[in-house]
């Protein structure tokens, strides 16, 4: 749990205590990446939604992937921001987050490729072309942020970056 914010306090939080805002989560790499994923994912699905995406089946997939992972990312973000993951201590959160980020990365790769391949420069509606091209760009950036989150989640799941001596000192301090 080395890469997850609040990992040192995970064992000391009582399940009956009210949720508290975790400011250190917002400054952590995981918090910053989740915030970027939420903003970029919002841009992807809102740009696609602003076009006539229902006329092209490919954009239905892009819309599904971007909206589905945007909702889940916001839920994970709120869960970690309010330290609700500490209330459900029986769930292996580092593993869940790593699997989530890996699946999001793979599906965003497919969404990015689909979106980029379906952009037609000869579109009769210029604003649809611009929005779809921008959605492809932001889908690529979102895919990259999920890939980086997968890396950090993997390190947190494996416990890389900390050792038993430092975690014992911070737990008892």
TrEMBL record:
MF-aspect GO terms: structural constituent of myelin sheath
Transmembrane stretches, start-end: 33-55, 61-82, 94-119, 134-154
Listed InterPro entries: MAL, Marvel, MARVEL-CKLF_proteins
One of the GO biological process terms: myelination
Cellular component per GO, a single term: apical plasma membrane
Localization annotation: Apical cell membrane; Myelin membrane
Membrane topology: Multi-pass membrane protein
Pfam families: MARVEL
Primary location recorded for the protein, binned into one broad class: membrane
MARVEL domain sequence ranges: 25-158
UniProt keyword annotations, A-Z: Cell membrane, Membrane, Transmembrane, Transmembrane helix
Family: Belongs to the MAL family.
Oligomeric and partner information: Forms oligomers.
Protein name as catalogued: Plasmolipin
The encoding gene: Pllp
């Amino acid at each position: 749990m080395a890469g997850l914010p609040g990992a040192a306090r995970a064992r000391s939080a009582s399940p009956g205590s009210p949720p508290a805002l975790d400011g250190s989560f917002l400054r952590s790499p995981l918090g910053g990446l989740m915030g970027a994923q939420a903003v970029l994912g919002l841009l992807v699905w809102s740009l696609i939604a602003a076009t006539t995406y229902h006329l092209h089946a490919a954009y239905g997939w892009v819309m599904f992937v971007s909206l589905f992972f945007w909702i889940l990312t916001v839920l994970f973000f709120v869960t970690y921001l309010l330290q609700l993951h500490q209330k459900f201590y029986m769930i292996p959160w580092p593993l869940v987050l790593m699997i989530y980020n890996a699946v999001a990365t793979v599906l965003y790769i497919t969404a990015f490729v689909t979106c980029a391949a379906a952009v037609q420069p000869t579109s009769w509606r210029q604003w649809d072309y611009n929005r779809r091209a921008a959605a492809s760009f932001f889908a690529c950036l979102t895919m990259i942020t999920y890939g980086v989150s997968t890396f950090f989640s993997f390190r947190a799941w494996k416990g890389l970056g900390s050792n038993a001596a430092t975690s014992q000192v911070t737990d008892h301090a």
